[in-house]
Amino acid sequence: MSEEKKSRSITDRIKDREYDREEDDYSDIENDELAPIVATDIKVPMSTYGIGPVFGLIAIVLTIAGILLRKKWIFESGIPDSAFLKYSYLGLGVILILIGLFIYWKAVFGIRIDDYLNAGKLCTGGIYAWTRNPIYAAILFVCTGALFISGNVYMYVIPILLWILLTVMLKKTEEKELFKRFGQEFLDYMVNVNRILPKPPAK
Predict the structure, then answer these.
(1) Residue 115: Cβ within 10 Å count
(2) 169 and 197 in contact (C-beta within 8 Å)?
(3) Are 198 and 103 in contact (CB under 8 A)?
(4) Can you give the pLDDT of all 203 residues of the chain as single tens digits?
């Protein structure tokens, strides 16, 4: 098989490939079964908002529902009698909200993501060196903080559900698109930076 046909074959396989694996380790690419190819012919910039409006609406609705239901029906028993626990949940909630607001501020005002999207470049600096999805992380932190302030332990399952939902949504949409556009560069970025939970960048 000629190099031209081989390259065309690999490209076709990547275009037709279904990214439906549970783990996003891309082991077939790392094992050279598929070569990561950057889709340099994609001229349309990625959406600035991505899945943000959908996920944000779901997160807000579930968080408000959790707060409103904290003293309703069987959920009322989830509020602790201990004053120590109540104030501990309150303090933790405030801290989480402040962290979320700080991440949001760094993502919106600390770096112009639109410039990267319009230029077709992968943003890996600033807050994006700490988390691949700072705005989504901010939403999760703020919603989790609000639920902790509400003080009902039953409602703490909501952040876990939101985390799972966000992970699935990102793997099925934005991460697939980023891989098509940036190939190995995005795979290296995935290895070094968490999807949601911020961590200090490697030095």
Answers:
(1) 10
(2) no
(3) yes
(4) 444 444 444 444 444 443 333 344 444 434 444 444 444 445 566 666 678 899 999 999 999 998 988 777 777 766 777 788 888 999 999 999 999 999 999 999 988 888 888 888 899 999 999 999 999 999 999 999 999 998 888 889 999 999 999 999 999 999 999 998 889 999 999 999 999 999 998 77
Our measurement of the distance from residue 74's CA atom to the centroid of its chain's CA atoms, rounded to an integer in Å, reads 32
Altogether, the residues listed in the chain come to a count of 203
> Which pair of tokens denotes residue 85?
């626990």
Q: What is the rounded CA–CA span in Å between residue 152 and residue 173?
A: 33
* Residue 178 DSSP SS3: helix
Amino acid at 182: F
For 48, the token pair is 């600035």
Q: Rounded to the nearest 5°, which phi and psi values hold at 194?
A: -65, 155
The whole-angstrom separation of Cα 35 and Cα 127 is 29
SS3 197: coil
Alpha carbon distance 36, 30 (integer Å):
9
Cα gap 47→179, rounded to integer Å: 15
164 HSE (CA, 13 A, CB side): 5
- Report the candidate in 38, 41, 35, 40 with the shortest Cα–Cα distance to residue 13: 35
